[in-house]
């Protein structure tokens, strides 16, 4: 894979991760504020199935099967591009819109508008929620003051 | 032996109608929503996901509602549901080192990188019934937020391993065994044992872990680390050929640090017992780690004397869905079996009577 391809794949992995964490309703709400996308063909209708989640013995050893999780997938074609989505859970609307956006975002002519209108705001909301949780966790960090002063 | 018998349909349908009514309870009391169970009975949801071996909070909450709060029945419903879904494949192994931490504690180091983060814990509560909760009121005040958020931190076991004091886990690249596809076979490799324990009955695994502490195959453990939080799941769809992040799941990991006196090929060092479970399940993860270490006794050259060290005993009896099935099948009609037992007993007793009183029998 060339450096260009790697960078593009990284960017695609980023928007896929963001869309995997957004509900169908959230994505639809943001899409509605943008000019509508042209019609697309559904290559694989949204379908819910399972992915076997693996862990590693001791955290870093040999893999083992931990248990399954529900995942919904979908594939669409929009012009030249094929969009794919695999998202945790059973939200079919989310998988359909994530696949449609994956196709649209691969088109450089549409990318900036969709990144700015959908992916960036979703990512910002997700980052804010993550940050708030990490600050709550930090507030429960133990400071061993008494131990240090009595030593 | 079972004999097909017709009849009972009317009784069964009446029984199920009554079940539905008792599930709902007094109609004057508002009905629980699945979202309420998912949000407010979160640890029950976590247990059902772990024992049902399927991560889906909504489905687990629905199962709890349907099972009237019987968590083993709920896990059974979830296991049954998952058989109706296709399997897309297996994820990349989770990177728990990159976990988004809600809680992280160590009983082996006071001052460790990243610190002791308590998170939303029952620890240090007084276990006094809180009658304030009986009165429905406004939501509690928001938990405080610190200025600097916690960051992901290295595992404690890694700190010891770098010093050579902790046995490294062999990184076997092979395809792990899968209990949902192949039945148990003995001796069971560690990957299969971990899968079995991760979905095992919490009470059973807890009791076995406890037994190791009380001297039945003791291995003197320390909690190297417990971490609770969220971790991204990566999956490589064949049509893409590169791994993509498909979302996050809640997870609890426990690393037990255990003594090991060494062998001919290895110096004395610490060894790991490992626990990893869906959701927030500290007791479950700790118990799993204790039993995982006990089950490693044979491969570490230790005596296998206690129940928790006995693979067949542990792995064949840990699954509460199989166990319930076999225990509860005794409720099903055994009329013909029992008739034959009755006949047998009557024949034996009649023979005994004849032996005792030969003249009376004549």
TrEMBL record, chain B:
One of the Pfam families matching this protein, by short name: PhnI
GO molecular function: lyase activity
Alphabetical keyword list: Lyase
Superkingdom assignment: Bacteria
The protein, known as: Carbon-phosphorus lyase complex subunit PhnI
């Amino acid at each position: 894979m060339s450096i260009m391809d790697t960078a593009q794949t990284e960017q695609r992995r980023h928007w896929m991760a963001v869309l995997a964490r957004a509900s169908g309703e959230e994505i639809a709400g943001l899409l509605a504020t943008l000019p509508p996308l042209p019609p697309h063909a559904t290559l694989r209708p949204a379908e819910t199935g399972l992915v076997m989640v693996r862990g590693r013995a001791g955290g870093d050893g040999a893999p083992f099967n931990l248990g399954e999780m529900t995942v919904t997938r979908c594939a669409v074609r929009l012009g030249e591009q094929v969009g794919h989505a695999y998202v945790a859970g059973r939200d079919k609307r989310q998988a359909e819109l994530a696949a449609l956006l994956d196709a649209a975002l691969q088109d450089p002519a549409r990318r900036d508008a969709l990144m700015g209108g959908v992916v960036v705001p979703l990512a910002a909301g997700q980052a804010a929620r993550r940050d708030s949780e990490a600050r709550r966790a930090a507030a429960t960090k133990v400071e061993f003051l008494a131990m240090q002063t009595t030593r | 032996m079972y004999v097909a018998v017709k009849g009972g349909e009317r009784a069964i349908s009446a029984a199920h109608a009554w079940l539905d009514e008792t599930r709902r309870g007094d109609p004057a009391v508002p009905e629980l929503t699945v979202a309420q169970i998912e949000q407010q009975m979160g640890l029950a949801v976590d247990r059902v996901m772990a024992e049902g071996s399927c991560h889906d909070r909504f489905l687990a909450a629905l199962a709890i509602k349907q099972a009237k709060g019987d968590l083993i029945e709920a896990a059974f419903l979830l296991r049954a549901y998952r058989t109706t879904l296709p399997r897309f494949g297996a994820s990349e192994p989770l990177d728990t080192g990159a976990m988004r931490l809600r809680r992280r504690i160590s009983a082996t180091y006071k001052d460790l990188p990243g610190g002791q983060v308590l998170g939303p814990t029952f620890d240090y509560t007084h276990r006094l019934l809180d009658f304030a909760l009986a009165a429905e009121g406004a939501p509690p005040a928001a938990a405080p937020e610190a200025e600097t958020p916690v960051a992901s931190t290295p595992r404690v076991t890694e700190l010891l391993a770098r010093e050579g004091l902790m046995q490294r886990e062999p990184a076997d690249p092979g395809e792990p065994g899968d209990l949902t596809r192949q039945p148990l076979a003995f001796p069971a490799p560690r990957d299969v044992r971990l899968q079995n324990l991760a979905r095992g009955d919490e009470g059973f695994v807890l009791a076995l872990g406890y037994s190791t502490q009380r001297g039945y195959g003791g291995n003197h453990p320390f909690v190297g680390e417990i971490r609770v939080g969220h971790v991204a799941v990566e999956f490589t769809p064949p049509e893409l050929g590169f791994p993509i992040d498909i979302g996050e799941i809640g997870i609890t990991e426990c690393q037990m640090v255990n003594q090991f006196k060494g062998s001919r090929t290895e110096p004395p060092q610490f060894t790991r017992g490992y626990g990893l479970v869906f959701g927030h399940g500290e007791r479950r993860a700790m118990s799993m780690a204790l039993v995982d270490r006990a089950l490693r006794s044979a491969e570490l050259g230790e005596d296998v004397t206690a129940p928790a060290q006995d693979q067949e005993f542990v792995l064949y009896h840990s699954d509460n869905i199989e166990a319930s099935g076999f225990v509860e099948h005794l409720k099903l009609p055994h009329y013909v079996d029992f008739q034959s037992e009755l006949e047998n007993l009557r024949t034996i007793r009649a023979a005994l009577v004849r032996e005792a009183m030969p003249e009376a029998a004549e």
